[in-house]
Amino acid sequence: MATRYWVASLPVGQGSSASSIWSRLQESISKQSFDTSLYRSNSFIEGVSHKIRRQIEELERVSGVVSSSLTVDGVPVDSYLTRFVWDEAKYPTMSPLRETVDGIHVHIAKIEDDLKVRVAEYSNVRSQLNAINRKQAGSLAVRDLSNLVKPQDIISTEHLTTLLAVVSKYSQKDWLSSYETLTSFVVPRSSKKLHEDNEYALYTVTLFSRDADNFRTKARERNFQIRDFEYNSETQDSLKQELDKLMHDQDSLRSSLLQWCYTSYGEVFSSWMHFCAVRVFTESILRYGLPPSFLSVVLSPSVKSEKKVRSILEGLYGGSNSTYWKADEEGGMGGFASEADAHPYVSCTINLI
Prior knowledge:
Layout: E1 4-11, H1 18-32, E2 37-40, H2 50-63, E3 71-72, E4 75-76, H3 77-82, H4 97-135, E5 160-168, H5 172-178, E6 192-196, E7 200-208, H6 212-221, E8 225-227, H7 233-288, E9 294-300, H8 306-317, H9 322-328, E10 346-351
Helix pairs in contact: 1-8, 2-7, 4-7
């Protein structure tokens, strides 16, 4: 699928017709720039809801979803663009142009506002989940230990307590050979390894409660870190439930947001196509005058053939104002929309991504 299109409007002069201009354009393109796809249309698109498209790409990446072709009313985006038909039911042609344009802007503004709310809700849950995950990441010297310690690992009575020691993985032999003698009230053979990462190992040690502070001091002198930790089954259960809920909410919100983006992308794309149809009509009237008599086309030239196609379009234009518009390129286009390309004919570039 092409990702870059041109929309051009060419005047149909007296003694000519849209069909004859179309035939001449087809013939010139096929002879001089055979790698340029040519489509007949009466509209162009200026921007293609890049914000929603980027959101879709990000959500698909995070979800591991295989990227699918975006559609508008069930039709692939490129097909909708190159075969555009005005939606009379949605935008009656008898309505004033200002009313049509205002309606499009209001509709898109509502979608954008909805997007902000939905993304903020999803991002908030992700932030909470990431905060918890950060606590459970990192080395044993700093990370949360709650998911590494089980109830049976801890002894907490009137006289006995269990401490958690973080030992360099290269000092484990030193720990095992010395922890029983760091103070006088350590329970022999009470140390058990609970976990090991790339830098440290986590050990338990049980001793008399009254000796805990003294043991911390002695351990620190030997470069063993005693982590502050108090096991609470209710707190642990609450943290697990919170984590499970956040993970469920994240998956649910991500799936809902992705589906909403798929639908909304099509709506925004369709709305902008209709907006651009109004633009190409009004710009052509301003450029070529009344009564309206012009041909609008969509092209997808390759980069290497762009100059050649521009030359073909300018040759078909054949208007007396050609020199004026070329000279005005350097200083702006006067009354013509600043986003449009500066050429003798009405032209605009569409970037799908």
